[in-house]
Design a protein that fits this description.
Layout (H helix, E strand, L loop, with lengths): L1 H22 L2 H12 L2 H5 L3 E10 L3 E10 L4 E8 L2 E7 L4 E4 L9 E2 L2 H10 L4 H4 L1 H4 L2 E10 L2 E9 L5 E6 L6 E10 L2 E15 L2 E11 L8 E10 L18
Antiparallel strand pairs: 1-2, 1-13, 2-3, 3-4, 4-5, 5-6, 7-8, 8-9, 9-10, 10-11, 11-12, 12-13
Length: 251
């Protein structure tokens, strides 16, 4: 009887392990993340989204912040302002551009190909994880890793461009709590870490309202923080707002 009971426990343990292993696959975790965000139908119904809040950069300088994303062309516009000066970063679906008065420039200039790709990837409504299949990226499950006391699931998204994202998903909510991004910028490897929190509903879809990012393993003083104070789903937009202004600075 003792041997039979011992054998039964071993069988149960093996079955539980097998069931957990089957659950911990990239496809299953992607499905759970999508459901946690609000589901495919509600996410697809968002044709555009606009966030407003504040951006705090190293040195504790506080800027007003507005970010607009548009699904049709994958366009994005980010505006950060302080003391009458506004840094603008735009992408119309093909061309990336910026206006940076903090560098003494008052007119628009084209972004480099690397910077344009980075802006396009990070500013999509769905994000690189949920848009991986459409973008032709591969997604791999990397197991679990502790992040500040949370035994998070890890997923790696490898894009055709060579950029790579490692997502940490909360094991209870399946929402992103951290992303480590690796990409080549102007011939050098850049690794940044972004932490997400305070998820709020926008048209039935959860978006993070607290975002902190900076170089990997950097100190708090090197991080920048975005706090979203309000958001609108499907606001009225003019497609021309994403286009680069006609006056272009020479690099």
């Amino acid at each position: 009887m003792w041997k039979q009971f011992t054998f039964s426990l071993a069988v149960v343990a093996a079955l539980l392990a097998a069931r957990e292993a089957r659950a911990d696959t990239a496809g299953d975790l992607l499905a759970k993340n999508l459901a946690a965000r609000g589901g495919a139908e509600k996410l697809a119904a968002i044709s555009a989204v606009q966030f407003t809040g504040k951006l705090i950069v190293p040195g504790d300088f506080e800027l007003t912040y507005r970010e607009t994303r548009e699904r049709k062309n994958g366009a994005a516009l980010i505006e950060s302002s302080i003391q009458g000066l506004t840094l603008v970063q735009g992408f119309d679906g093909k061309v990336g551009w910026k206006i940076n008065p903090f560098e003494g420039r008052r007119d628009a200039e084209r972004m480099s190909q690397d910077d344009t790709r980075a802006l396009a990837d990070d500013a999509t409504i769905d994000g690189p994880l949920l848009s991986a299949k459409i973008a032709g990226s591969t997604v791999a499950y990397l197991g679990r890793e502790d992040f500040e006391g949370t035994d998070a699931y890890k997923l790696r998204v490898a894009e055709p461009s060579g950029a790579e994202y490692t997502y940490f998903l909360d094991p209870d909510t399946y929402l992103e709590i951290k992303v480590v991004e690796r990409r080549e910028l102007r011939g050098a490897l850049q690794v940044t870490q972004t932490e997400y929190g305070d998820y709020e509903l926008v048209n039935g879809v959860y978006f993070p309202f607290e975002i902190e990012s900076g170089p990997l393993e950097s100190s708090d003083a090197q991080q920048q923080r975005i706090t979203i104070e309000s958001a609108r789903g499907n606001p009225p937009l003019r497609e021309a707002m994403f286009a680069m202004p006609t006056t272009v600075s020479a690099k």
